[in-house]
Amino acid sequence: MKFQKRALLIFFIISLLDSMCIAASKGIKGGGEIFAPDPFGRQAPGLFKLEIPGQDLGLLRKRYGLLAEGMAQKGQADYAGVRRLPNGVLRLSGKIDKKTPLQLSVLLDRQDGLMEVNSGGGDAVAAMEIAEMLHERRIEIRLDGLCMSACANYLLPAARKLSGSGLVGFHGDPNALLEQEGFEIFNKLGLKAYLSVQHAAWRHRKFFEKLGKKDCLSRVTQAAHRGAGSGVWSFYVPNAEDSRVIGIDVMALFDFELFMAFMLNTVEKNTGMAPLFYSRHGSSICD
Predict the structure, then answer these.
(1) Residue 195: partners with Cβ closer than 8 Å, 6 or more residues away
(2) Where are the alpha helices (DSSP H) in 27-97?
(3) What is the C-alpha to C-alpha distance for residues 144 and 253, in angstroms, rounded to an integer?
(4) Is position 139 within any domain?
(5) Is the separation of the CB atoms in 91 and 114 below 8 Å?
(6) With the CA atoms of 209, 239, 127 and 140 taken in that order, what torsion angle do they form, in degrees rounded to the nearest 10?
């Protein structure tokens, strides 16, 4: 069984490298469609579908500690929240929830200039509150694992500087969600849920206006034909041109080994879904 998994992983690595070479040599035509899962016309990074890690924390803790910590859900207190490490550095780990901004505000002092991050995302408004604190204090983010969804959408644009390495994935936009599913949210979940999304959308707009940066990478994940709820993919991993457009050098943080850990986790869960990559060679998805 172990031999089969290793062989499958090697196959994926070879296929991925082959895809990157083909894409680089031939270029990619077209206007931003989702490509079929074949080895042609794809390159990393891009859009990919996967089973979100976190369901099997025991396995992930043994093999990919950063994945387990970053995607930890409610109930794994030892892997989630903000704490100060023995070396004095602040660290945000696991799911961001409504309590996380308060945890940070209590620990944050004038001497702090750096915060380590390993998070799979969480509550959008809470992430914006954290991001505003980081922006006001001019805090550097050192990535040490994952920064996905709300973490990527809000914490990265607010950081004074980025360092470290890991995997960045953009996911979801409350304004685009309202445009597409506003009535459904109200109809299925009620007024309270609808007003909650409205508030998040308002905060989102004000947040990016204050920063003076583009929100296209989070918005594109909610596009009608390739949104977060479409079942096509889960996160958008930006390319070099995306980094240029949004003014955040996320490519410098890219960790290929962690990327492959996501792929292997998908295979181990027997989902039958190979990761799908999206790319318009030499351009940004924001263009």
Answers:
(1) none
(2) 57-63, 65-70
(3) 9
(4) yes
(5) no
(6) -90
CA distances from 174 to 158, 170, 195, 201 (A): 18, 13, 11, 5
Per-residue pLDDT band for 15 (boundaries 50, 70, 90) equals very low
Most confident of 39-43, 244-248, 270-274: 244-248
Other CB atoms within 10 A of residue 225 CB: 9
pTM of the model: 0.71
Domain that holds residue 122: 46-171+236-268
User: What span, in angstroms and rounded, lies between the C-alpha atoms of 28 and 4?
Assistant: 33
Q: The CATH number of the domain where 143 resides is what?
A: 3.90.226
How many CA atoms, within 13 angstroms, populate the side-chain half-sphere of residue 157?
A: 28
| DSSP string computed for 93-147 | ES-B-TTHHHHHHHH--TT--EEEEEE--B-HHHHHHHHHHHHHHTPEEEEEEEE
Q: Can you say whether the dihedral through the CA atoms of 21, 22, 25, 29 is positive or negative?
A: negative
Give residue for tokens 């479409």: 230
